[in-house]
Design brief:
about 30% strand; 2 helices; about 20% helix; alpha/beta; disordered N terminus; Rossmann fold
Length: about 220
């Protein structure tokens, strides 16, 4: 048996979501704490900056569902042991697809800032002035040694485009990292919360510094 082995994880019915508090042991030939065939569901809670950090803007924003590779557009929690192989933690999943969770985190950060006239998901058909497109390039725990705690990296490409004409007016690469405190899924998820929160704060601060789009 190998550590962090790739396994097919059955995704439970949403009516029976249970927040997993137990961590998957990552020592050699270890088993799960809890039922061996039950996936633990981990909640992603990005820690973003709280409170206003600048002047309010008078434009409305639509946040698109982030793009992602097929490997990251999933409920499974990704890890790497090399630059060429992507794997997943066994019996550990997010409660929804990663892009939807990132979209929710970005939306909440704009709302919590109290600095924007209106913000909504693209699928809610808000009459927006700007559209924010996101592309998740990295969202994984990266191991430099088999037994050490990994370093998490979150990289998101952001592009702001006018709602009228879809002209891209600005772009940003938000890349943040955080070290997991231990070699466990719990510690990795906490590091992902930290890295994603920093990336989202970077994106919101950049976006809210843009001027209002020109009237068509």
């Amino acid at each position: 048996m190998t550590k962090n082995s790739a396994m097919t994880v059955p995704v439970p019915d949403r009516r029976f979501f249970l927040v997993g508090a137990s961590a998957l042991a990552l020592s050699a030939c270890s088993g799960l704490i809890g039922p061996p065939d039950a996936a633990q569901i981990y909640i992603l809670k990005p820690a973003t900056q709280a409170g206003p950090q600048g002047a309010k803007v008078d434009w409305a924003l639509s946040v698109q569902i982030p793009a992602a590779s097929e490997a990251l557009d999933a409920q499974r929690i990704a890890l790497t042991h090399s630059d060429t192989v992507l794997d997943y933690y066994a019996n550990a999943v997010w409660p929804d697809r990663l892009p939807l969770l990132v979209q929710t985190g970005v939306l909440a950060a704009f709302q919590d800032s109290g600095r924007i006239a209106a913000v909504a998901r693209e699928q809610e058909a808000l009459h927006a002035d700007y559209n924010l497109a996101l592309d998740i390039r990295d969202f994984a725990a990266h191991y430099s040694s088999p037994d050490g705690a990994p370093r998490v990296t979150v990289t998101i490409i952001a592009q702001m485009a006018t709602a009228h004409g879809r002209k891209v007016v600005a772009s940003l690469t938000a890349s943040q990292s955080a070290d997991a405190s231990a070699n466990s899924v719990d510690a990795v998820v906490q590091a992902m919360d930290s890295a994603l929160g920093a990336a989202i704060s970077q994106i919101t601060g950049w976006a809210l510094a843009l001027p209002a789009p020109a009237t068509p």
